[in-house]
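User: Write out your own:

AI:
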Amino acid sequence: MIDGFNRTIDYIRLSVTDRCNLRCRYCMPPDGISCLPMREILTYEEIEHLCRIFADLGIRKVKITGGEPFVRKNICHLIRRIKQIPGIDSVTLTTNGTLALQHLEELKAIGIDGINFSLDTLKPAVFHQITGESGLEDVLAAINKAVSLQIPNIKINCVPVRDFNLSEIPDIAALAEDYPIHVRFIEMMPIGLGKDFQMISEAEVCHLLKDTYGSLEPIDGIFGNGPAHYYHIPGFKGHIGFISAMSHMFCDGCNRIRLTTDGQLKTCLFYENGIDLKSLIRNNCSDEELRQQVCLALQSKPQHHEISSLPPELRGMSQIGG
């Protein structure tokens, strides 16, 4: 698939639920959100049907997201089905890790191509302060087991937040010293409750890491589906990555689209425009019409998220698909 600015689109982030068992302060209010009723959420059969359409059009990589994917029952069944679709080369998953431990052996057997664990702190008290819940030990146990099972492409995603975890950045990065995993630092984006927090730039995080470890050596190459760029610290088994949507805009190389849990196909995280594929599929439109609508949506994908006249996205990340 080629969009209106000649970018190849081969990656979709697919949200399977807007529910989450945590209440991270930059993502969801303490009392939660008004979650969609199940009848408004795409069924697994509908998701698989749409994934076959996407594969026909050129999507090769699928990321399963939420909310928290493991909140939805039988998520491994869906992953197995998507893995079997001709043309899909990679199926990965992002999770907060608190519910992952019991599913890892099945994911390994299915052939999951990678898991991203969200982890903003190594301190139980700070974990509770950020998420509103306990569970850090469950996350760390899941990461350790994923490593022991030799699940490929294990990544840690950390959002630096000045009032919570900035002093821990070197310690979190050190997870890539002892394990063959990649630790990525993600700049806070002004989406939903993220607007209430100051963005910590890649430059500031790099400064903290250089103060601790000396040097960061840029690495050429792609270590995932999306826009992260990576550095190597001498002696580390894994790499340090950055996803810096605010200070290092990467729109020119954007290769992704998103499908929300209620079937809205979004071409840009920052804007609310999209196409309602759920209504089309439930009104029994043909596969050819679905393909045409997806291609039509692709042509409306903006060139950059800062210079568009499109209406801004007002939903939070858990409602869009993190």
